[in-house]
UniProtKB/TrEMBL annotation:
<dbReference type="GO" id="GO:0005829">
    <property type="term" value="C:cytosol"/>
</dbReference>
<dbReference type="Pfam" id="PF13393">
    <property type="entry name" value="tRNA-synt_His"/>
</dbReference>
<dbReference type="InterPro" id="IPR006195">
    <property type="entry name" value="aa-tRNA-synth_II"/>
</dbReference>
<keyword id="KW-0648">Protein biosynthesis</keyword>
<dbReference type="InterPro" id="IPR041715">
    <property type="entry name" value="HisRS-like_core"/>
</dbReference>
<comment type="similarity">
    <text>Belongs to the class-II aminoacyl-tRNA synthetase family.</text>
</comment>
<dbReference type="GO" id="GO:0005524">
    <property type="term" value="F:ATP binding"/>
</dbReference>
<dbReference type="GO" id="GO:0006427">
    <property type="term" value="P:histidyl-tRNA aminoacylation"/>
</dbReference>
<keyword id="KW-0030">Aminoacyl-tRNA synthetase</keyword>
<dbReference type="GO" id="GO:0004821">
    <property type="term" value="F:histidine-tRNA ligase activity"/>
</dbReference>
<dbReference type="InterPro" id="IPR045864">
    <property type="entry name" value="aa-tRNA-synth_II/BPL/LPL"/>
</dbReference>
<feature type="domain" description="Aminoacyl-transfer RNA synthetases class-II family profile">
    <location>
        <begin position="398"/>
        <end position="633"/>
    </location>
</feature>
<dbReference type="InterPro" id="IPR015807">
    <property type="entry name" value="His-tRNA-ligase"/>
</dbReference>
<dbReference type="GO" id="GO:0003723">
    <property type="term" value="F:RNA binding"/>
</dbReference>
<dbReference type="InterPro" id="IPR004154">
    <property type="entry name" value="Anticodon-bd"/>
</dbReference>
<dbReference type="GO" id="GO:0005739">
    <property type="term" value="C:mitochondrion"/>
</dbReference>
<protein>
    <recommendedName>
        <fullName>Histidine--tRNA ligase, cytoplasmic</fullName>
        <ecNumber>6.1.1.21</ecNumber>
    </recommendedName>
</protein>
Amino acid sequence: MSSLLESCKLIDQSSSALSTVAVAVAALSCEAARANLSAFDLTDPGDGSVAKDDIGVSSDIKVLLHGSKLAVSSNKGDDNVNKNSFSKILDVYGNVREAVKSLHSAIRVVANSGQKLSGKVLHLCFELRNLGESGLERVRLNLDSVSIEGLKNIFENDCLSEERLRSGVKLAVDAELEKDHVKLVKDVDSVLGIVWKIVAWEAVTAFFVLEGDEVLNEKNGGKGGEADGGNVKAEKKKKKKVLLGRGTSLIVEMIKDRLMSKGDGLEKIVVEFLSFLDPKSPDFDGLLKKVKEILESNESRRIPKTPKGTRDFAKEQMAIRKKAFSIITKVFERHCATALDTPAFELKETLTGKYGEDSKLIYDLADQGGELCSLRYDLTVPFSRYVAMNGLTSFKRYHIDKVWRRDNPSKGRYREFYQCDFDIAGQYEKMGPDFEVVRILSEVLNALNIGDYEIKLNHRKLLDGVLEICGVPPTKFRTICSSIDKLDKQSFEQVKREMVEEKGLSVETAGKIGTFVKIRGPPLELLSKIMGEGEGSELLKHNASKEALGDLSLLFDALDKSRCIDKLVFDLSLARGLDYYTGVIFEAAFKGGVQVGSIGAGGRYDNLIGNFGTKQVPAVGMSLGIERVLTIMEEKAQNQAVRATETQVLVAVLGDKLSVAAELVSELWDVDIKAEYKVHKKVMKHIEYAIDSKIPWMIIVGERELNEGILKLKNIETTNEEVIPRSKLVEELQKRLSP
């Protein structure tokens, strides 16, 4: 075991070095191919949806290429090159880093427990193969661009290929199947050696694309000509020196210093170069140290970051959010609600005991002068506190604001996020408010135009009746509801195991619950079936569930007449884990391609307001999961042009006279025209800005226009220009901007 462990440690050490050096080599290839760096525009969204190692690779590539004039950060690069050879770098190299870390952690455990390493070693082998194949693509791409004859022949003599990689991996897989772990480690080490050779060749070919002519000319005393059978193609004029990235330029200079001190001739130079990137070479540690120094000097690592589960919103995202909030507010105000705002934090006692098992997710604040406070978990409890504190007996309000939960971030799940709530408190006709809030949720989702969705609906009393019929003690109703609420994420067998092993139900009781929670279907059809014979017989004998079925009958009839029942599903598995629900409960789920979970929910809570005062005021409300809805909208907008501003006119002043711009743009602002200005000598700079910002109109004014009392009015879409009198600026623009 000790020799096997030592061999694994050597693989761990070598592959760790590879994961660092390979990224630096890939950066050289980016410059050799003039690749588009947009593939590396990866940031941490704060929700755990992007692998940390992918983000690390992205950051390292950008550090190495910072300041480069070869690798570009716009669509001016070769998109096909980028897609075919560079877009996979983050995923492939990030996976290698993750596999290396996994093996390293396993080695530490093994040293203490004797746990087998074969699975981790084989996983690393697969990821190394992917890295090798990715590197070979760029080696060939570089060879197609290199201006030095003979280099391709030297490479081909090394017999590096995808087939050789796959054969090595197959040997490792066979060894694992045969439980021959010593052979497995040996075979993986062989694959690692092949990958190192590929990475070295990628460095060689990228370097010769960038600096090969210069190095060979210097080695030949500036005469050019032949070098060990390989011609340096004569150049008619000296190449213009192109600026490399800060990191890659240091690596290139280090390689040049090494090569200039060694033997002449192309083949000898290549051999020396490959030796430099051999991890067994005595000089390799110097190269590795230099690469690490460059990466660790990364200033971006010292830039402040947002906390986990939070994120910043760029201008395009803010445009989408602003549009969504406007649509939602319009629907809420159509239903005659008034806006309400409450503090971002409440007394801890206000929030305690309202959220069941989720109470552990409340953010507590440090003691501030004797008051224990917590950030609000939702908008419903503060609303209930407000109604009770002010002695209100009826109130229809909406509230759009941030809430905070100490949750584990995941895709569409954050620790800081907006909620959009609509609640109706007070005594009204039976099921009237319940109908309206479900209708409002449907209206909002339709207005946002996100795609197909469904609203699952149940009744808390019906669920309580099911639990009582199944034999669940009343003291366990809420905790079992929390388990049932997980059925949209887990199988019933997983939930059943939790109810039996963690919450003490018998297998028989849990199994009986399963027969009920699997019941779902169209509301009117399923309700009619339950009210008849068969499944409904036990529920109709139970007072609470019978009352609930009566409520649902009224609700479904109203929703049917309101023409929105086609989006509803009557689902007996819907539980909603919050403790304060007492009646109808509902939850909306998106049915499109983006997996985001619940996008809206709500229900009746008749006793919550009474917890804060002397009077019980019944209430029902809904909350839109706006962050998840926005995730869907952002996905849909990826292939669409999103305007970050609503600018209608750009005032383009040719020259440096701010006063001219101030005079013109102020006239437009005064009449409520959305305008901005730019002062620059070059007209194309103005036009490019207008095109990039999707501004439809431009006013162009230079010395000639000022002297003649005219302005140029340019339509950006059609490129048509016309001359207008300076005095009629506002009149002419209003004429064109009016619908």
